[in-house]
Every structure is written in C-alpha cells, then in structure tokens.
Write a structure and sequence with these properties.
Layout: H1 11-30, H2 37-44, H3 48-54, H4 58-83, H5 86-103, H6 108-117, H7 122-143, H8 152-165, H9 169-183
Helix pairs in contact: 1-2, 1-4, 1-5, 4-5, 4-6, 4-7, 5-7, 5-8, 5-9, 7-8, 8-9
C-alpha cells in the first residue's frame, strides 16, 4: 500500500462509528439542551476515547450526524415514492423532515457553529431538501394529484416554519396536514378563488 493510500477502516471501527452516529442522533433528538459527549459514548457502550478517535470534538460529531441525517432525509423521498402514491409519499416525507428539524434542537448551538464555519453549506443543505421536494411534487403533478403551480422552495419554507413554530406535536401534525391539503390538485375552481 502506498503512503498516499489510506489504510482501510477496520470493520469494528466502522461499526463503532455508525453506532456513535445513531446514538448521538437519538440523544440530540431527545434532548432539550446540550448533550454531553460522555453521555453519547456511555449510551453507545464505548469509551470516550473511542468517540474522540472518530470525532475529535463536538462540532465534528454534530457535523457527521447532520450530514448522515440530511442524506437520509433527502434519499427518503425516492424510497417513499417507490412504495406509495405521491400524495402519501409527500405526507410521510414531510413528517420525516419535521423529525429531522426537531432533532436539531438538541444540537442547535454546535450546529450553528458548524454552519458558520462553512464546513456544512447552508445552500447545499437547502438544495438537497428542495431537490427531494421537487421529486415528490413532480411525481404528483405527473399523476395529477398535486398542483402544478407550486414551487418546491415555497413548500420547504412552509415546512421549516411549521417545524420551528409548532408548539406541540399535535399542532405540527395539523399544520402539516393543512400544507398537504393546500398542495392537492383540486377538481374545478376553488370557492372564493379568482
């Protein structure tokens, strides 16, 4: 192996890294405030040294969790469309996205530092989410079940607003349902419309 070729990651090291990412994501989602790295390591059943070998600081862990979850939530759109009609896929994806946003509350301060540092691009994040929504809308437009005059950017803005402003899980569900209802194609003129 040449000096420029990195050594392959051992299977146990890969498993530990994935376990730490899952455990941290769950801890951040459940937390009302900061989560200690020691608590993440303990919950994952590994030592703090193992955590630091994979993630040298809190921001590195937060960035890795954020990237993994962003990739997952973006890819979920295609998977949901394979298994569901477009309106159902859109509804389920919105729920998944709302959980993604809610899970960021426990790592808000560190995530802000990661975003401010530029290691995670806000525009790239937004583009990934908009791309997922565009695919869901396009499928519904092709099927005739979703309105053709809706922009994905507007849906994402609405989703983010709902996710951040809802004061309870029940209210968040109601607001998401209203948003989806507004996206469904109507048959004929809308009462009071132009």
């Amino acid at each position: 192996m040449s000096e420029s070729t990195p050594a392959p990651t051992r299977a146990d090291a890969r498993r530990n890294r994935e376990l730490l990412l899952r455990t941290a994501a769950e801890a951040f989602a459940a937390a009302d405030g900061p989560v200690s790295l020691e608590a993440v390591a303990r919950s994952a059943g590994v030592g703090i040294g193992t955590l630091y070998r994979h993630f040298p600081n809190r921001e590195a862990l937060v960035e890795a969790v954020y990237r993994a979850e962003l990739a997952e939530v973006s890819a979920a759109a295609a998977e949901l469309l394979r298994r569901n009609p477009p309106v159902v896929a859109l509804r389920r994806w919105m729920e998944r996205y709302a959980r993604f946003v809610a899970a960021k509350q426990g790592m808000a301060e560190s995530l802000r530092a990661v975003l401010d540092s530029g290691s995670v691009s806000r525009s790239r994040t937004r583009a990934d989410i908009i791309g997922a929504v565009e695919s869901l809308l396009a499928a519904g437009i092709d099927e005739g079940s979703l309105r053709a005059d809706v922009r994905a950017e507007d849906v994402v803005t609405g989703l983010l607003g709902i996710s951040l402003a809802a004061t309870s899980e029940e209210q968040r569900r109601r607001l998401l349902e209203l948003l989806v209802d507004g996206l469904v194609a109507t048959r004929g003129p809308v009462p009071g419309g132009q």
